[in-house]
Specification:
- The protein is of the alpha+beta class.
- The protein is built from two helices and three strands.
- Strands 1-2-3 form a three-stranded antiparallel beta sheet, covered by helices on one side.
- A hairpin with a 7-residue loop joins strand 1 and strand 2 (about 35-45).
- It is globular, with a radius of gyration of 14 Å.
Length: about 100
């Protein structure tokens, strides 16, 4: 598990209350190649809320196949890339980290 602190984000992405919160990125660890995952807004004492998804890679060329394979969605709002089971495993690992 890894936690990334994000200090700047689009204000329109989520309504951020004036209380402790964090963002968490969770993804399936596949060993090599680019990562695809989901971003969650986690207000203290509330359930995490999906606010977006991400692709991460060592180089732009590594990310190119993901961009080509991505199709625009007709659904409104963010769409989860991970299954609920994988999300729960990632969130539990982050919750157990000091």
């Amino acid at each position: 598990a890894m936690e990334l602190e994000v200090f700047q984000y689009g204000a329109a992405a989520v309504n951020v209350p004036e209380k402790a919160h964090r963002f968490r990125g969770v993804w399936e660890a596949n060993g090599n190649g680019p990562l695809r995952g989901d971003w969650y807004f986690c207000p203290e004492g509330e359930a995490p809320r999906l606010v977006g998804s991400f692709d991460a890679g060592a180089t732009t060329l590594e990310l190119l196949p993901l961009v080509i394979a991505s199709q625009p969605s007709v659904a409104w709002g963010p769409q989860a890339r991970l299954s609920p089971a994988l999300r729960d495993v990632g969130m539990a690992a982050l919750g157990a980290a000091p």
